[in-house]
Amino acid sequence: MGSSSGRHSCVVGLQWGDEGKGKVVDFLAAGADVVVRYQGGANAGHTVKVGAKEYVFHQIPSGILQEGKACVIGNGVVLSPRALIEELDQLVESGLDRERNVWISERAHVVLPYHQALDAARERTETGGKIGTTLRGIGPCYTDKSSRLGIRMVDFVDPDRFRRLLERNVAIKNRELELFYGAPGVDLEAVWSEYSAYADRLRPRVRDITEFLYDADDAGATILFEGAQGALLDLDLGTYPYVTSSNTSFLGIGAGTGFSPRRVGTVYGIIKAYATRVGEGPFPSELETAAGDRLREAGGEFGATTGRARRCGWLDIVALRHTIRDGDVDALVITKLDVLDSLESIQVAVAYRRGAEAVERFPTLLDDEYKPVLRAFPGWKASTSACRSFEELPAAAREYLQFIATATGRPIAMVSVGKERSQTIPLDPWLVPRAKSGE
Questions:
Q1: According to the 3-state scheme, what is the secondary structure of 35-84?
Q2: Distance CA 149, CA 172 (A)
Q3: Among the options 46, 58, 109, 322, which is catalytic?
Q4: Confidence of residue 131 (pLDDT cuts 50, 70, 90)
Q5: How many CA atoms lie within 13 A of 303 on its CB side?
Q6: Residue 392 CB contacts under 8 Å (≥ 6 apart), including other chains
Q7: 215 CB-near residues (< 8 Å, 6+ apart)
Q8: H or E element at residue 313
Q9: Residues 416/422/428/430 CA torsion (nearest 10 deg)
């Protein structure tokens, strides 16, 4: 087996998602040959702005906007054929006919209408509190995968096999919908008619992705992996049960593609200069005040997938240390620094307090009893949106970034100061942590 010499890289979110990974993937994809999405489903939303056009991707890797890149959907993704075809058609409408660049793992599981029906029914009747899902059927599809009831792409594009498995599953799921939730079932023939057409469209794009990636690696190609959601939503390492149904960190690559993570050279952890969360669950640094409303408006914090208003708060160093360590992150990328431009003062959660106890370790059972210990920083009260180098940033902004590097123990490789592809500042050399004695 040949060595990849560290040329491959991975982009992951380190918060609760919505960190701006789409823009970073688009930027880094210029230097890649293959871009791979390895987990999640159409519950993700990656937004990229190029010139006057804004693109939102839910399943297609964000690298699709860079010409000539092979864009791969791995087996760890649960794929909605309807949503994928809508995305492909929207690209054509935008003047980018790149369906031939998209490849789908034959082992990826398929999201079907009964998954969405079950998702909605469970959220509606959940007695232990809502999770706050996007109602896209992601969790029920992963449940079927674990229960060995799933329909994979290799099944989906085989008409006889798809029909047989669909009949079995619709019978099971309709009983569940009707008996447990008092909800109507799905119409077998309607699903068969609609989804058979999707299968015909996608059949040429389905292949053995693991083999494809190893062949690309052996040929000297550069591969960029992109995660969806954020590490605090990781099924195993996130704020359970308020999590998604897949492994969202760098550690999900192996299971999600069959490609060895040992061949990936650099893991970029993406964070906003503050923090947001969509849906239910604990959020220690949340601002349920006018300050949170200002961050939401300035940052346009409304979900790309659902349109829901995001909960906003200060950057959380305790949570970041947890996701950096458990995700084996090499360097940080800070996005939306410009959203803080107008603030007089900026705060950061540097520890938690639970009653009289000071807490610096991220707890396995995070609840609302954990309150943030905040440290204040002066704002810079100046626009950063036109800055294109670290030196052009205001001094207070540079100091804020330096604190993040030092507090997390990771260098900063890039800073984003706006939605545009051009509003990106690569730091060469990277901004490295200072000795903590200087704090």
A1: EEECCECCCCCEEEEECCEEEEECCCCHHHHCCCCEEEECCCEEECHHHH
A2: 10
A3: 46
A4: low
A5: 20
A6: 386
A7: none
A8: strand 311-313
A9: 10
pTM over 0.85: yes
C-beta of residue 215 within 8 angstroms of C-beta of residue 236:
no
The widest CA-to-CA distance across the chain, in whole angstroms, is 69
CB proximity list for 291: less than 8 A, separation 6 or greater: none
Q: Is residue 259 exposed (0-12), middle (13-18) or buried (19+ Cβ within 10 Å)?
A: buried
322 flagged as catalytic? no
DSSP character at residue 249: S
Residue 262 main-chain phi, psi, to 5 deg: -65, -15
**In which band, very low, low, confident or very high, does the pLDDT at 6 lie, cut at 50, 70 and 90?**
confident
Give all domains of the chain, ordered by start, each with its CATH number.
Answer: 8-105+206-267 (3.40.440.10), 109-202 (1.10.300.10), 271-438 (3.90.170.10)
Q: What pLDDT, on a 0 to 100 scale, did the predictor assign at position 439?
A: 45
Assess whether 46 carries a catalytic annotation.
yes
For the chain, what percentages of helix, strand and coil (3-state, to nearest 5) are there? 40, 25, 40
Rounded Cα–Cα distance for residues 329 and 317 (Å): 14
Contact 313, 286 (CB under 8 A): yes
